[in-house]
Amino acid sequence: MDIIVGTDEAGRGPVIGPLIVAIASCNRKDESKLNELAKKDSKKLTQSQREHIIKDLQKICKFKYIELSAEKLNKLMDKKSLNQIEAEAMATLIKPFHEIADIMIDLPDRYAWVFRRRMEEKGLEKFEAEHKADENYPIVAAASICAKLERERRVAEIKQETGVDFGSGYPSDPKTRNTIRDRVKISALRKHIRIKWKTLDNVLQRKLFED
Most buried residue among 21, 35, 67, 95 by CB atoms closer than 10 A? Predict the structure, then answer.
């Protein structure tokens, strides 16, 4: 097929902020340029490097993304797993390309057959999915860059809106851990905190001197 498509996410693990699921599409005639631009693992790029690369990627790729806020995730997780939620977002994004493109997905489930079953329930069968696809397929790396940039942008907006610098939002970040133990800060951030996360409970149960 003449079009290649990749999809990936950013923000599965944080206790603060949104999950972003992104898709990138590119014509095969531009694949060599894509390979040159997105050859490095997006996780190893700095934010400024991603911002620079995305400008060139936008000349040959089209991007779309879905933002799932912490507030929305909290509601959805009353009935669905995170993997199911992510699969549904991916299905929404790839559906327009299902019959016209070669699709590669960064596999969110542990087992490929589980993810395939989720997608087949949405009427989607023509795709490939692998773990660490963002490291092996430039089109998925492009989607990963988009997802990370959009999450970083949204996190910056949340900090400006609330006046709270909570760091990255990931539980491994000391600034994030200290923030969610501060009653004043956590009150300001309430709608941006993923209360369904087991990692949140784990952090709140630990004492400050254990850091």
Answer: 21
